[in-house]
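re: ur msg from earlier - yeah i can do the NDP complex, just paste it... oh wait u already did. ok heres what im feeding in:
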Amino acid sequence: MSDVRDLIIVGGGPAGYTAALYAARANLEPLVIEGFNWGGQLMITSDVENYPGYPDGVMGPEMMADFRRQAERFGAEFVTDDVTAVDFSERPFRITVDRDEYLARSVIVATGASARWLGLESEQRLQGRGVSACATCDGSFFRDRHIWVVGGGDTAFEEALFLTRFGYKVTLVHRRHEFRASQIMIDRAHANEKLELKTPYVVEEVLGESALTGLRLRNTETDEVEDVEAGALFVAIGHEPNTKLFVEHLDHDDAGYLVTKPGSTETNVPGVFAAGDVQDHTYRQAITAAGSGCMAALDAERFLAAEEGHEGTALTAPRPEAAEV
Ligand code: NDP
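and the outut:
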């Protein structure tokens, strides 16, 4: 493919789709290479209660479909596949998807982050056989079982509360007595009689041959080990940025998160911008990802206008035929 596009957005989550919406409205005709599993982490989230504009809450997948449709309405195009390689060493930038190559004057990286695992061989072997990182996807398989969740952040609490719909009992196990989760989640957990908090323990082994049957827990204060019966284990211990393809080209921190210039979405490569969780390990909210996606589109539009005399419509100005109120 030899056409050079103004803007390619890699990643289809709140950041990528918001960037696509703004860029499409500025006539940059963005191509979004959204990933085979588009939608990002919100596709494995149940109720979203804290995204402004949805006073009654919304399901994560429904919200992502809304984001995508809104970008599509203004002409954003989509490739529903995963990027396999990038080359940011010269312009135009090259982005490869299997045997197809795409060229772009500017790129927004919005590939997000993925669930982290404990790293046990037994955990990996029993994935899909009782071990999961997605309560929304797999919770209903474990009706009337004793379900365990590991982690002490908002994700772990959210998953544990959701899983009380299915399990006869849910136990959240965490390695310290203190939780990172917000107080409202902790209060909800205390108020839920099906939910028990077990601290300070780590999961040392996942037990079972062909399916999960139990867990080996170790008390982190006394080192005492105990085996417990388990019908399911949900791992909710945080995330890692999806930056494997980019770390060769773009500055990143020790954890792999892309580094952007303070107050902007610029990376160390002029014309390449980063938005959303791929560059944010602090806030990691749909709303902050969407906000930085907007910033990236504005930054890309200004870059193109300055560098290449691109005649884009000002991003902040509404189209005459579709002026907002
Ligand atoms: P966090 O990083 O906040 O929490 C991860 C948890 O997992 C910590 O309690 C950590 O323990 C524990 N952990 C990490 N590694 C291990 C390990 N190897 N073994 C055992 N435990 C481990 O991640 P979350 O995914 O929970 O949240 C990420 C962000 O998303 C946060 O900002 C959160 O507020 C937000 N969020 C908001 C939601 C909402 O508002 N509805 C819902 C979900 C997430 P330790 O504390 O000891 O380090």
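cool cool. The two ends are 40 Å apart (CA to CA). ping me if u need the other ligands too
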